[in-house]
Design goal:
Pfam families: BON (PF04972), CBS (PF00571). This is Putative manganese-dependent inorganic pyrophosphatase. It comes from Dermatophilus congolensis. The protein is built from seven helices and nine strands, in the order E-H-E-E-H-H-E-H-E-E-H-H-E-E-H-E. It is an alpha/beta fold and about 200 residues long. It folds into two domains: about 140 residues, CBS-domain (Roll), CATH 3.10.580.10; about 60 residues, Histidine-containing Protein, Chain: A. Helix 1 crosses helix 3 and helix 4 packs across helix 5.
Length: about 200
């Protein structure tokens, strides 16, 4: 399975030099958890997450709110409008490409505790993949995967081919010719959540 099949596109980005308020509004409006940061030319120069922003603007402990929490919240509001995202963003950004295998991204996401990975084409951002996208793609319920795969085979006119799924591993069975077998394999490999495909002829 390729990254292009699970990425969200277009990616919601924020301009370098934007205020914290600008970034917070983008996160809230588009219901995303991270924003790739681009420079004036559109090139990726960093990424900032909701956690980065919250850590910057919220007191670490409840007692830090002081005796007048409303006054403290007013101070926080001032901070979000006057300070920029530049010092907060991560500049060492893990990126991927649309033809990359999702399993490869999963390995990085799991070992480096990364929540979002920008997707590039010709060094320009075209989408983004979240950790939840990766999990959903790689660990779909077998029944859901089988239903989608059965429909995909039918859409391609491969009525003589049938699939079984166990823990994301697909077994194709059919009595078609070699060309149909290759077509059925391609359909199965393209389905989101498929970990491995084998084929047998009746």
């Amino acid at each position: 399975m390729r990254v292009r099949e699970i990425m969200s596109a277009p990616a919601i980005t924020v301009q370098r030099g934007a205020s914290l308020q600008d970034a917070l509004e983008l996160l809230a409006t588009h219901h995303v958890t991270a924003l790739p940061v681009i420079d004036e030319t559109g090139a990726l120069c960093g990424i900032i997450s909701e956690l980065d922003l919250l850590r910057a603007i919220m007191p670490n402990h409840a007692e830090d709110m002081g005796e007048n929490p409303h006054e403290k919240l007013a101070e926080i509001s001032d901070i979000t409008q006057t300070e920029t995202i530049d010092p907060l963003m991560t500049t060492d950004v893990l990126t991927t490409y649309e033809d990359e295998d999702v399993a490869h991204i999963a390995a990085h996401v799991s070992t480096r505790n990364i929540r979002s990975v920008p997707v590039l084409r010709n060094e320009r951002i075209i989408g983004i993949v979240s950790r939840s996208d990766v999990i959903e793609a790689l660990f779909r319920p077998d029944e859901e995967l089988l239903n989608d795969l059965t429909a995909d085979l039918a859409d391609e006119g491969l009525y003589d081919w049938h699939a079984t799924v166990q823990r994301g591993i697909v077994t194709l069975t059919g009595n078609g010719n070699a060309e149909e077998a290759q077509q059925a394999l391609a359909v199965a490999r393209a389905a989101a959540g498929v970990r491995k495909v084998s084929i047998t002829t009746a």
